[in-house]
Amino acid sequence: MSKAHIHEEGRSGWGAPGPAEARHPSGADVVPGLLSLGQALQAALIVDAYGRVVWMDDALTHATGPQGEPFQGRPVAAVLARLPWLAQAMRPALQGKAGVHEESGLKAFVLPVFDEQGTLLGACARLQLPESSMGQVAEGGLTRHAPESLAHMNSVLRATFDSIAEGVIVVDLNKRVTAFNKRFLDIWGLTEEMMVDRDAERVLVRAAGGVKHPESFTSRIRERFEPSEQVDVETVELLDGRILERKSLPQRMGGAIIGRVWSYREVTAERQAEAERERLLREAQEAIRVRDDFLSIAAHELKTPLTPLKLHLQMLRQRGAEGDGASARHVDKSLMQVSRLTGLVNDLLDTSRIQEGRLTLKHGPVVLQELAHDVVSEMRLSSAHHRVEYEAPESPLVVLGDADRLAQVLVNLMENAFKYSPSGGTVRVRVAREDRHAHVSVQDEGIGIPRDQQAHLFERFFRARNAPISGFGGLGLGLYICGDIVERHGGRLWVESVLGHGSTFRFTVPLAST
Ligand code: ADP
After folding, report:
1. C-alpha neighbours within 13 Å on the C-beta side of residue 450
2. Alpha carbon of 468 to those of 297, 348, 424, 443, 446: distances in Å?
3. pLDDT tens-digit series, residues 49-108
4. Measured from the CA of 446, which atom of ligand 1 is nearest?
5. Which residues are near ligand 1 (CB < 6 Å)?
6. Rounded to 10 degrees, what is the CA torsion of 399, 400, 404, 407?
7. The pTM is what?
8. DSSP string, 24-70
9. Is the distance from CB of 267 to CB of 244 less than 8 angstroms?
10. Is the Cα dihedral 294, 296, 297, 298 positive or negative?
């Protein structure tokens, strides 16, 4: 096997003119020698003494045209039809002369290869980008790529940059915009023309015009114009309601920071969905809390009348056994507790009927004074330490509706007036005419209701915070039911109250047209 070598000249170690009368060897036995020498020299192209391609590296293969066609053994001029200058540059080397050729920003070092006897075996070419363009390509061996391949890669990168969902801008340490993509312009409503001067400060001021908190927005970005290792992820709210997530990180070259990359992603829908989920969660938690409170109050309220009821019944049994006859007082007390339990159970039933839309009302003429008079007379008896005043006009106020349900409303309002006036006082019931409505009010001098709680009184299970269950029993259902009944009669129920001074509950019902 022949041993291939190059003729050395000076200190360059690259190519040297060999004897002009070099002989062309024939046969494939020269190929391994050519290959090993060419590869040691990092050659991109190796041809034999006849100008036939022996080997090309991948980048050059790529640049020469469609992949997959075999090039071995074909004339270099044909294989390099797209790079004729390089084929041309090989000629002197095949005549024993080394040289350097430059074209389209690419340098080719060509040199002949001889065997020990000085016979020309072939030639190699090593390709290199000129120094000035070295910095523009990433590390990792692109230096031997043909310009077509670089242009191709550049276009791939550009297309990728413009197709990503994030808006990206890159700013160098001189506050110059070194790159940005279309999405960045779209997000910030900017145009290519606005970016012509590449002034990052100007872009920042323009963008700040559209954000909710421009001062913190600009100061945060200006801080990061200084070189910093920091990677930040922040949220930017825009005046038009959009929400952006901003990520920024240093741009490095070699080990040094040379600028910063900012990317913006629209997260409006994500954040809104998140806020909605949180709201629903809070509501669900509140509903669970209300339910739990209600269950404990309901259990307490339903149990309370049972103890005295049991006690009174035990006494009745004992006295009966002693032949003492039933004591009217114990019977009354037992009946009172039974009616309290009945009231609680009825409220629960009414509430579930209202919820399911099953609460039905009768529909007939009701003279309000008669109804109110009956209720007031009966209720008067239920509290010894309240004074009850009743006032109503002479001429009958007739409404169309359900007398029992309207009486239930008045009873409930009066019971509350007694219950929430633990120190007694006067309870005033008034019936009056107001235009085409009958107006009924129940006024007490009791504990009153905190202002911020008044709007909630007619909600299911609501109990004001100044009415602790230990002091004032109740399920928080009465007013909810009353409100529903009044509304279904075409009227309105509301309250006026001063904390510590008393409350007035009022409701209206439309008068029947005569
Ligand atoms: P409850 O059974 O708890 O009394 P209601 O629905 O009748 O339920 O009343 C709801 C809440 O409204 C009560 O828990 C109480 O805090 C408040 N309230 C009702 N009436 C009065 C009143 N006359 N004075 C003060 N607070 C009242």
Report:
1. 8
2. 11, 20, 18, 21, 14
3. 999 999 888 778 877 776 667 888 899 998 988 888 899 999 999 998 888 888 767 788
4. 24
5. 416-417, 420, 444, 446-449, 457, 462-464, 467, 474-480, 503
6. -20
7. 0.53
8. ---SGGGHHHHHHHHHHTT-SEEEETTSBEEEE-HHHHHHHSSTT--
9. yes
10. positive
